[in-house]
Amino acid sequence: MVRVERKWRTFPGRNRFYCDGRIMMAHHTGIFCLTVGLIVLTCGLFFAFDCRYLAIHITPVIPAVAAVLFVFVMATLFRTSFSDPGVIPRASSDEAADIERHIEVPNGTHSTTCRPPPRTKEVVVNGQSVKLKYCFTCKIFRPPRASHCSICDNCVDRFDHHCPWVGNCVGRRNYRYFYLFIVSLAFLCVFVFSCVITHLVLLSRDGTFVDAVRASPASVVEGVICFFSVWSILGLAGFHTYLTTSNQTTNEDIKGSFTAKRGQDNFNPYNHGSVCINCLSVVCGPVPPSLVDRRGIVTPDVVRPTPSSLPKPSENKEGRTYGTVDYGRPNNGNITPPPDIPRGDWDVHHDGIVASKKKLQTNAFNGRYQTDVSSYQNFQNQLLSCPSVETDP
């Protein structure tokens, strides 16, 4: 039975895949689990110990609003964490070689001991000159606004930052969900904190504040978590609101990509000139498809066998199998395959020699493919004496 191997198993980046490649995350997901645990714990205590009292003494709308916010927060969090942020595939060996041929090495040097200086190209975006940097890892010129994440070891389109709290990079394909997660989490945190304080105040009317704490200790736990979390969450939500209204990324803002340098005019070529249009383009714009075929089938390259690639036959010992044999034949040649090899294991491609890369394991114990080592040696000698024929790729 032929084993099907998915492409996510051979993905070159430092990512983790789940559900047969449907879920893509960073390699380290411990802080993401902490994020989920804090949100679930806080909201679980709130629903268990505060919502019932507030629904009876104030309004039943409070549990409904909390439930909607909780579901929305978790949905956007999982959407951000489990999706492809916009990874740009690495160049194949042929593509990388072609790019290298078109790159001019500075000063004509070809040193093999030190890495050449950064290679760049310039393109014009809305009247602004933008540099395209060459990635030595992915062997590509990164598109505008793309950057290489050192943690995930991938080039990400419209790279914002790597967020360990969501366990993934934040890029073009998941930034809107990250922004909605931050904003909704800020609302949820403020809502839960205000409801907890209201619950404790109402309980303290019939006694002291200490009595209220003893009556509902879970409210104290929720209040402490929300109090120490709300400030950073509100600050982060405000910062990303500023980035969204100006159509910038965290990476561009930190590097000062669009600030005036040495008296030269420098502006953001991606700014639409309107706060509303910038927000709509980021939050409501179309999501591009993923460029990474995670669930595709790995297809091995078909190559012509060479003398160095042909293995030596192993010794014929009882209870052991022979080594891997690569074999092929020309369509118009005079080579006759050994009679013990099934006819279906032979590949014919036009008039060329095609190496099949299939493995024939001969077990002398059960007698399934009883062959002799000398017959394989003669067959390999015939194969090596065939003329080389160019084949279509």
Sum this structure up briefly.
The chain contains 10 helices and 10 strands. The chain is an alpha+beta fold.
Polypeptide structure, described:
- With 393 residues, the protein is α+β, with helices and mostly antiparallel strands.
- Helix content is 39%, strand content 10%.
- The protein has helices spanning 30-49, 51-57, 61-81, 93-102, 175-204, 209-215, 217-246, 250-255, 275-283, 373-384; strands at residues 15-18, 23-26, 87-88, 120-125, 128-135, 140-141, 147-149, 154-156, 161-163, 168-170.
- It has a three-stranded antiparallel sheet with strand order 3-8-7, with no helix packed on it. A three-stranded antiparallel sheet has the order 4-5-6, with no helix packed on it. Strands 1-2 form a two-stranded antiparallel ribbon.
- The radius of gyration is 31 Å and the shape is elongated.
- The relative contact order is 0.11.
- Residues 314-335, 343-377 and 386-393 have low confidence and may be disordered.
Considering the chains and any ligands shown, give keywords for the structure:
393 residues, alpha+beta, three-stranded antiparallel sheet, 10 strands, disordered C terminus
Instruction: Work out the helicity level.
Output: 25-40%
For this structure, the quaternary state is: single chain
Radius of gyration: 31 Å
N-C termini distance: 27 Å
Helix count?
Answer: 10
Give a quick account of the main beta sheet: strands, pairing sense, barrel closure.
3 strands, antiparallel
Low-confidence stretches: 314-335, 343-377, 386-393
Whole-number mean pLDDT: 78
Q: Which term fits the overall shape? A: elongated
β-strand percent reads: 5-15%
H/E element sequence? EEHHHEHEEEEEEEHHHHHH
Biggest sheet: strands side by side, in what order?
3-8-7
Return the structural class.
Answer: alpha+beta
